[in-house]
Design goal:
Blueprint lengths: L2 H37 L17 H25 L6 H29 L1
């Protein structure tokens, strides 16, 4: 076999082996911790954080992704219409993604103020 063939094979085995090992270690230690808590008479559910509901989470992600999409589009238009070779799309993605998050902030702030009154 060729020498260059072994590099991707070893890389894949290492990647999957490490992932499996970390997941196994996490699940194993979590199980041991819960068993120890049950033996001492402590309810393990008392240590789990209660999930908080964020009713604006989908709004945040949608505005961010819309901003990124607009940034990609405008960056591509700027890149085609000018002699800029690179950097326009990256800058526009950051700019419009940030504007989407800023819009989210002002919407949530306005709704919080309306809810306080």
């Amino acid at each position: 076999m060729e020498e260059g063939l072994w590099i991707p094979i070893i890389g894949m085995i290492t990647t999957f082996g490490t992932t499996f090992g970390l997941v196994f270690y996490y699940l194993h230690t979590r199980n041991k911790q819960r068993l120890a808590m049950i033996e001492k008479g402590v309810d393990p559910k008392t240590f789990w954080p209660k999930p908080t509901s964020n009713k604006f989470a989908s709004l945040k992600w949608s505005l961010l992704l819309i901003g990124v999409a607009i940034g990609l589009f405008i960056g591509a238009v700027i890149q085609k219409s000018t002699d800029l070779e690179e950097g326009a799309q990256f800058a526009m993605v950051l700019l419009f993604g940030g504007l989407g998050l800023l819009t989210y902030y002002f919407i949530v702030k306005k709704n919080d103020q309306a809810g306080d009154k």
